């Protein structure tokens, strides 16, 4: 049987493992549009459970461990892959309930409950994804249960089957076959299962220390970004930074780096002709400063106690979500990114804004926080991105009030839904009318290719301009303005009346105005509006109604 302490360590190891391998999972994403990325979302989801798991002692029952983990994953769930992962762990919570230790039968039941919950949460389950990998692994576990009562053997079979199923995913999804990759979510799940299996077998917990990186050259200008990678490392107490004006006869800075590595870690020493910048985590900041004086004059020294900072951060994280008393019947929560777009939603009645969108999938807890801060008895939630809908739906189960998640997949759809709201109508009529408004809107999005890809028969190169029509790739361009104009023409139909152009943070006002003038000249019979959305990722978001 598997003790609670072993289950705890297995989940911690799984979180560290997917965190270290998230980049390789992200790179399996077929669609070249910049997005939250599967590996990153799964990593952030499971890591949300770590603070509470690490506080559990070795005598904690397996059922309690599973419950704590499931709660952490649910609240931290990001993106569709993160939500599905959280539901699989909810299956563990149900299957291990009241169990001091995990038996083979407990494990099989838990896997089945997790798979059932994951499939139920997806409106149209697609085979060849993480769902298939989880389901076939669960089926294999059930098949071998009569021959063993050892949960470790069961987990071994689960991993073997998950790996085999993962290799078959390209046969089920043509897009994977064309790109020559396996499913990203399935790969992430395999990494997590394998890390858990290794701990079950007596292996060590995968370290949360970052793998050693050997950059070719770091400049002084890169210093801040390099140091940022070490913000969460607290092996030593004091984060020490300083700027050294070099002496004319200063020794090679590699000698300073070698000394600092003897008294601490996370050492960064970068220099140019005149200065040396230093960052080190150490228990002896005085020694670091004393050694630095041998190389020149010290300016702007900074010493911070990271353990005290960490405690303060943990205290802030653990603060309970405050529920605002309802003062009205209906309220709105909208997910949006960009000052202009956020202001637009506020102007048309949104009570709370959750900052997020493409590449920035908010967690279930982020959305829940906004719902609980909305002063209404019934809250309509507008995810405005297909990768955020599932996380929003999980928040419904945690809220203390009625919540309706509308299926808005774009910013224009969310705005159209809000504009269709009638304060004098009842809930059901509003839900129907707002959903109908979502379906009437055509959305165009102009962005860039985040990676090289062979997608739907197109060979796409990183950096090319992608033009999307209602979420699907329409064509590729080399020029942003040309792509936006061409896309607008494709969106306009015979019964269209309005065109709204939202320009992003990387587009100048003059370029946006030039596009509006061109569109207005082409469609002189339509009402064309230009708005500074300030959104990241998308150069333009175009709405046609």
Description:
- α21 (509-522) links the parallel β16 (498-503) and β17 (527-532).
- This protein has 545 residues and is α+β, with helices and mostly antiparallel strands.
- The relative contact order is 0.09.
- α6 packs antiparallel against α7 (130-144) and α12 runs antiparallel to α13 (285-292).
- It is built from 21 helices and 18 strands.
- It has a six-stranded mixed β-sheet, with helices on both faces. A four-stranded antiparallel β-sheet has the order 4-5-3-6.
- The protein has helices spanning 4-26, 38-47, 50-54, 62-76, 79-95, 104-121, 130-144, 151-172, 174-179, 184-200, 223-228, 253-263, 285-292, 306-317, 339-347, 364-373, 389-396, 411-419, 427-440, 480-491, 509-522, and strands at 2-3, 101-102, 238-246, 264-271, 275-282, 296-305, 328-336, 352-355, 376-382, 402-405, 442-448, 453-455, 458-460, 465-469, 472-477, 498-503, 527-532, 540-544.
């Amino acid at each position: 049987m598997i003790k609670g302490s072993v289950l705890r360590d297995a989940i911690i190891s799984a979180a560290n493992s997917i965190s270290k391998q998230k980049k390789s999972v992200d790179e399996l994403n077929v669609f070249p549009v910049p997005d939250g990325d599967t590996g990153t979302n799964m990593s952030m989801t499971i890591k949300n459970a770590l603070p509470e798991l690490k506080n559990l002692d070795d005598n904690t029952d397996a059922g309690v461990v599973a419950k704590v983990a499931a709660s952490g994953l649910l609240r931290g769930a990001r993106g569709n892959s993160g939500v599905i992962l959280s539901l699989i762990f909810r299956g563990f919570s149900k299957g291990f309930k009241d169990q001091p230790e995990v038996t083979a039968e407990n494990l099989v039941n838990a896997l089945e409950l997790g798979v059932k919950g994951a499939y139920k949460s997806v409106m149209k389950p697609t085979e060849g994804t993480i769902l298939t990998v989880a389901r076939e692994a669960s089926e294999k576990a059930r098949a071998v249960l009569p021959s063993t009562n050892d949960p470790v053997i069961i987990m071994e079979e689960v991993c073997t089957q998950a790996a085999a199923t993962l290799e078959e995913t390209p046969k089920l999804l043509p897009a994977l076959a064309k790109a020559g990759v396996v499913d990203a979510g399935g790969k992430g799940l395999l990494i997590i299962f394998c890390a858990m299996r290794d701990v079950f077998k007596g292996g060590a917990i995968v370290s949360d220390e970052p793998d050693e990186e050997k950059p070719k050259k770091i400049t002084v200008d890169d210093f801040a970004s390099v140091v940022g990678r070490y913000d969460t490392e607290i092996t030593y107490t004091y984060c020490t930074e300083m700027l050294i004006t070099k002496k004319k006869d200063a020794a090679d800075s590699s000698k300073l780096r070698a000394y600092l590595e003897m008294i601490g870690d996370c050492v960064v020493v970068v220099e140019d002709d005149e200065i040396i910048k230093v960052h080190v985590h150490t228990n002896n900041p005085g020694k670091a400063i004393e050694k630095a004086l041998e190389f020149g004059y010290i300016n702007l020294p900074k010493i911070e106690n990271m353990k005290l900072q960490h405690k303060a951060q943990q205290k802030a994280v653990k603060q309970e979500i405050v529920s605002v008393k309802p003062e009205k019947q209906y309220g709105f929560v909208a997910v949006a990114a960009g000052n202009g777009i956020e202001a637009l939603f506020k102007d048309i009645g949104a009570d709370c804004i959750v900052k997020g969108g493409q590449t920035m999938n908010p967690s279930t807890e982020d959305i829940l926080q906004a719902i609980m801060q909305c002063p209404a008895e019934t809250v309509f939630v507008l995810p405005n991105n297909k990768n955020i809908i599932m996380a929003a739906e999980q928040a419904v189960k945690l809220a203390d009030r009625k919540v309706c998640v509308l299926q808005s997949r774009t910013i224009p759809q969310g705005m159209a839904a809000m504009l269709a709201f009638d304060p004098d109508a009842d809930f059901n009529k509003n839900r129907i009318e707002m959903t109908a408004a979502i379906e009437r809107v055509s959305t165009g999005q102009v962005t860039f290719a985040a990676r090289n890809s062979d997608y739907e028969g197109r060979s796409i190169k990183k950096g090319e301009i992608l033009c999307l029509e209602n979420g699907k790739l329409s064509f590729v361009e080399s020029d942003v303005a040309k792509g936006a104009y061409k896309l607008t023409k494709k969106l306009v139909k015979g019964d269209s009346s309005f065109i709204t152009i939202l320009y992003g943070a990387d587009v100048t006002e003059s370029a946006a105005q030039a596009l509006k003038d061109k569109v207005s000249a082409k469609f002189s019979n339509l009402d064309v509006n230009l708005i500074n959305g300030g959104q990241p990722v998308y150069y333009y978001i175009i709405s046609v109604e």
